[in-house]
Amino acid sequence: DLKRFERVGAENGKELPLINGVVVDLPLRSLEALSRSPEVRWITVDAPVISSAATPGFGEQGSIKTPVSSSGAAYATAVQTDGKVLVAGSVSDNGRGMLGIMRRNSNGDPDNTFGNNGLVLAAIGTYETRGLALTIQSDGKIIAAGHAYINNSWDFVVMRFNANGTLDTTFAGSGKQSTDVNGTDSMNQVLVLADGKILVAGAEQNNRLALVRYNSNG
């Protein structure tokens, strides 16, 4: 309450100290209203924008930091019915960009039953593969989607993994599928439909919406 702070200071005849910053947890609607206030000089948002308080008993004070490689980023999360947490993104592995999926137990510890100490890496093509979207099928299989640089262009990519992190070879014969929509493609979302078909959404190089639907077998 900056107005009350100014009034109290003025009544006491004191020069007010500089407020270097205030950390708050706000709903998005309140954040938008605050950003329009002429009395607010700047706002720094620490992702995720929409969040809840840290969960006690998860990692260190409700958060986890995991060094995976010299470079990389996390883009998507999903929570299994057993409380285990999946995180998908991109990971640098010996100079090659890989799609990476990490799984943590409900207490934040690495799930050693998943991949290599809780981490799975996969790729299509020879340059870079990025995991940008993540979802879990009703049977527990994991679908990661994103894009990869294949034959001099970025294409849509979908991969399906078994619950233990191995690629599901009943999907497209290798667990991996790619689609060149139109030149430089960028995928953002993946959804499993009620009939088991998989719908992915993104954009092609002319900034047009691009939707691709796959059968459940890829």
What is the radius of gyration? Answer: 22 Å
Q: Which descriptor suits the 3D outline?
A: globular
Percent strand equals 35-45%
The overall strand count is: 11
Q: Could you list the spans in which at least 5 consecutive residues all have pLDDT below 50?
A: 47-54
Number of helices: 2
What is the arithmetic mean of pLDDT?
80
State the major sheet: 4 strands, antiparallel
What is the structural class? mainly beta
Separation, N- and C-terminal Cα atoms = 55 Å
What does this structure look like?
By secondary structure, this protein is mostly beta strands. It has two helices and eleven strands. It has helices at 2-11, 28-35; strands at 72-79, 85-93, 96-104, 119-122, 129-136, 142-150, 153-161, 176-179, 186-192, 198-203, 209-214. A four-stranded antiparallel sheet has the order 1-2-3-4, with no helix packed on it. Strands 5-6-7-8 form a four-stranded antiparallel sheet, with no helix packed on it. It is globular and about 60 Å long.
